[in-house]
Amino acid sequence: MSARILFITDGSPSSMAAAETAIEFASFKNAILHVVFILDQGWRNLLGDEWMSSSSTRISFQDWLEIGLTEQAESILNNTIELAGITSVETIAEVKVGKTETVIYDTVSMIKPLLLVLPNPYSTAPGAAGGLSYNIKSLTKKITCPIYLGPKLPIA
């Protein structure tokens, strides 16, 4: 298996700044850039169903929202692929659904990257308004490869 750099993105400004570092490192190491956008499975729990008239209405709404979230994720992944293409870095991109920390850990375990690049968790708005939510201390206990956090940028 070729060497890989794993970049987890959420499309935030910190994530986009971290993308540049991930691409530079992949280019320097002649590694594949593996880009993952995580749709946290918790979004489904954010929807109250009291206002929905029926279960079919709720399911239709959830399907509509999931399609929108997936399209947004694919757009963010395509932007990263285009950026990596400028430096001729080979890129693999995918959208994964699950608990953020579990998806990160499982992906690291599966591809065994040289480096894990993450957006800075302190550069996004709290709760559902922002990007990825994860506990960096918890991740560092489970993940053995080096971790690079994107820059801490002011919250807009």
From TrEMBL:
<dbReference type="InterPro" id="IPR006016">
    <property type="entry name" value="UspA"/>
</dbReference>
<dbReference type="InterPro" id="IPR014729">
    <property type="entry name" value="Rossmann-like_a/b/a_fold"/>
</dbReference>
<dbReference type="Pfam" id="PF00582">
    <property type="entry name" value="Usp"/>
</dbReference>
<protein>
    <submittedName>
        <fullName>Universal stress protein</fullName>
    </submittedName>
</protein>
<feature type="domain" description="UspA">
    <location>
        <begin position="1"/>
        <end position="56"/>
    </location>
</feature>
